[in-house]
Design a protein that fits this description.
With about 350 residues, this protein is an alpha+beta fold. The protein is built from 4 helices and 7 strands, in the order ββββααβββαα. Helix 3 packs antiparallel against helix 4. This is Spindle assembly abnormal protein 6 N-terminal domain-containing protein.
């Protein structure tokens, strides 16, 4: 199990800090509480100032001393819950909290205010964290930031690849849309040309047949007139007239057949026109579907580009924080070297005095 699995509380608070000379300032302090069962570890630090780092390991024996000295009416388990609850009360501004710094000790004081004085609920003393442990924490945080940065870099690469894939899809769909649009226009032109050609051909046929029919009717009328004149002149021409009438009847039947053929052709043309209109409507519907898909992909592309920009900003911020932590680590190492040099000088002085 990792250390974070034992984390009972993790939060940042704006807390007034009082020094020995009564000077106070507000600091944004991070409070971490880890519950290891028989031990409660409390860490208080300023993330902007690595030297402000305090810690206390409160075990059962330490708690008993704290409970007796401050007259606490809870056991160790209840103390853990109440301590976290007081921090939440401080967040809700239902309780006050301040830090009192003296030498290498930091006292967390929970209190409320009445009309005449402050009422202290709990005072918890934290000791300054060892420099080596601070450096180890900074190393750990830097490693975590590097891991986070690596994950973000992978996410960024994945998002960039997704965007590129989507751009290719958009490009392919746009090309497909253009091809379909061109094909649609060509089909419409071909349909129009075919319709016009077919209608022109049928109109010409109808006109020709009507003209021929009129000519035949005119010829029939002429023959009738001639027959009428012959009937007045010759009574014995009745047989020929009957034959002529029979011929006319047969010709009329032929004309009726021609008219029925023209009607059938007209019905075929109407059916062809309905089919062509249905095909045009289907092509328009397909074009609308392609345009809707194109707009949806454009919207998805815009969202992915926004996500890519946000990931780039987060990576930039993490890189900046890693750079700052690296500078702090170098400064801490320099301080540790100076401290070791001073310690060596003091040791030499003590040895010299002892030998003298």
């Amino acid at each position: 199990m990792s250390r974070n699995d034992f984390c009972l509380y993790n939060g940042n608070h704006l807390i007034p800090v009082f020094l020995r000379n009564c000077y106070s300032e507000e600091k944004n302090l991070s409070i971490n509480i880890f519950d290891f069962g028989d031990k409660l570890q409390i860490k208080l630090r300023d993330l902007a100032e690595y030297s402000f780092n305090y810690m206390e390991n409160l075990e059962m024996g330490d708690f008993e001393t704290l409970r007796i000295n401050q007259c606490l009416d809870v056991n160790f388990t209840e103390f853990k819950t109440n301590f976290v609850d007081m921090l939440y009360q401080f967040q809700r501004k239902e309780m006050f909290l301040k830090c009192q710094i003296s030498d290498k000790l930091c006292s967390l004081i929970f209190f409320t205010k009445s009309k005449i004085k402050d009422i202290v609920y709990l005072t918890l003393d934290l000791h300054m964290t060892d420099q080596k442990e601070i450096i180890a924490e900074m190393h750990s945080e830097m490693h975590d930031l590097q891991d986070t940065n690596g994950r973000l870099q992978k996410q960024l690469s994945k998002a960039q690849k997704t965007v590129r894939d989507k751009e290719l899809e958009v490009s392919d769909l746009d090309a497909t849309r253009k091809l379909m649009l061109n094909q649609f226009c060509k089909n419409i032109e071909q349909i129009e040309k075919l319709s016009i050609s077919k209608l022109t051909h049928i109109q010409n046929q109808v006109i020709n047949k009507i003209t021929a029919f009129k000519s035949q009717v005119s010829e029939l009328e002429r023959k009738i007139n001639v027959l009428k004149q012959e009937n007045h002149l010759k009574v014995d021409s009745s047989d020929r007239l009957m034959k002529t009438m029979e011929n006319l009847r047969l010709e009329n039947m032929g004309y009726n057949t021609t008219i029925e053929d023209l009607r059938r052709e007209n019905r075929s043309l109407n059916h062809l026109r309905v089919t062509l209109e249905r095909n045009v409507a289907d092509l328009k519907h397909s074009l609308d579907d392609v345009q809707n898909n194109y707009r949806a992909i454009e919207k998805k592309k815009f969202e992915l580009e926004n996500d890519l920009k946000q990931l780039s900003i987060i990576v930039t911020e993490k890189d900046s924080k890693i750079s700052e932590l690296s500078k702090d680590l170098v400064q801490a190492n320099n301080m540790l070297v100076q401290f070791n040099n001073r310690f060596d000088v003091k040791v030499q002085q003590v040895i010299y005095i002892a030998c003298g």
